[in-house]
Specification:
306 residues, alpha+beta, Alpha-Beta Plaits, 9 helices, 16 strands, 24% helix
Length: 306
């Protein structure tokens, strides 16, 4: 067995090479915000978060991820739960997530509905609103040809709008939905929770959390008190703000639920407890129990009816 680690400006890749198999994990650095979710749920503690000192006059730098190639087991849990889709796992150069194959972990639900029939030709408000540039709006003719200048075409009834969203990287902040004037996009959040900033505990002039927040508008600087405040409508509860906050009690963040596909694994329960709390994990287990009981009753009734 051989382990490798390669790194450049854009990617960090760790590999484990066996005689018959080759496993690899790649982190896309420009996509990663350093939110610590992957570190929190890694069962082998193979992921480290590195904070970087702030340079005077510059914005607070994002924390960065380091992966220890000797510890990584390429299970894919970090890949599943990254809100920004920054991590990919491969086996023999093919994308694969072992814990999905074994049905021991769920996948995050990224529910985004688009109705382009509602879109005005030439409107790109959703594309402009996306804080991490995941949306591309394209206007096409009935023949599929791309139209660059819609103003030059007199008959716009023959044009149609395509909206392409890189869902695998979308944290579902809902900015595109809120900024769409035509109600053409509907987004459901993945992570739910609470976030609170205690202004009286914030250091004077500090806006470290605002500097690193990847979602425009989730945190904002008030003109009145010159302090950072929260708009939970857009917050995705990734937690990078909490990591860089210099005062422990100045920012409080708690995830309360995660939207995901059905799963029956105890391994997921442990991960859920780490990402939320024992209380929230217990709630999900109780809900699962009620669902199983209901399904059992329905099966019995259906059997009796036959």
């Amino acid at each position: 067995m051989k382990t490798l680690k390669t790194e450049n400006e854009k990617t960090l890749t760790v590999e484990r090479i066996h005689h018959a198999r080759r496993y690899s994990l790649t982190l896309q650095k420009p996509t990663c915000v350093g939110c610590q979710i992957c570190k929190t749920i890694c069962p082998k503690e193979a992921i480290e978060i590195q904070k970087h000192p702030k340079t005077t006059g510059q914005k607070t730098p994002h924390p960065t991820i380091n992966i220890q190639e000797q510890k990584c087991h390429y299970c894919g849990i970090c890949s599943i739960l990254c809100p920004y889709g920054a991590i990919t796992v491969q086996t023999d150069n093919e994308p694969t997530i072992p814990v999905i194959k074994t049905e021991s972990f769920p996948q995050l639900l990224r529910e985004i509905e688009i109705d382009t029939t509602k879109c005005d030709i030439g409107c790109v408000d959703c594309e402009k609103a996306c804080p991490i540039n995941l949306i591309k709006v394209t206007v096409r003719t009935q023949n599929g040809e791309t139209v660059q200048d819609t103003e030059s075409i007199p008959n716009k009834e023959n044009l149609k709008v395509d909206i392409n969203i890189k869902k695998e990287n979308c944290p579902c902040c809902r900015l595109c939905e809120m900024k769409c004037p035509d109600d053409a996009i509907k987004v459901k959040k993945i992570f739910h929770g609470t976030i609170k900033i205690n202004p009286e505990k914030c250091p004077e002039g500090c806006q470290d959390c605002l500097d690193v927040c990847p979602i425009t508008g989730a945190l904002y600087l008030s003109e009145e008190d010159k302090k950072v405040h929260v708009n939970e409508l857009y917050c995705v509860y990734c937690g990078v703000c909490k990591i860089v906050c210099p005062v422990e009690e100045a920012l409080e963040l708690q995830r309360t639920s995660i939207r995901h596909t059905p799963v029956r694994s105890g391994a997921w329960n442990k991960a859920l407890e780490k990402l939320t709390s024992t209380k929230e994990m217990t709630k999900e287990l109780r809900a699962k129990g009620l669902t199983k009981a209901r399904e059992s009753v329905e099966k019995r009734l259906a059997w009796r009816a036959t």
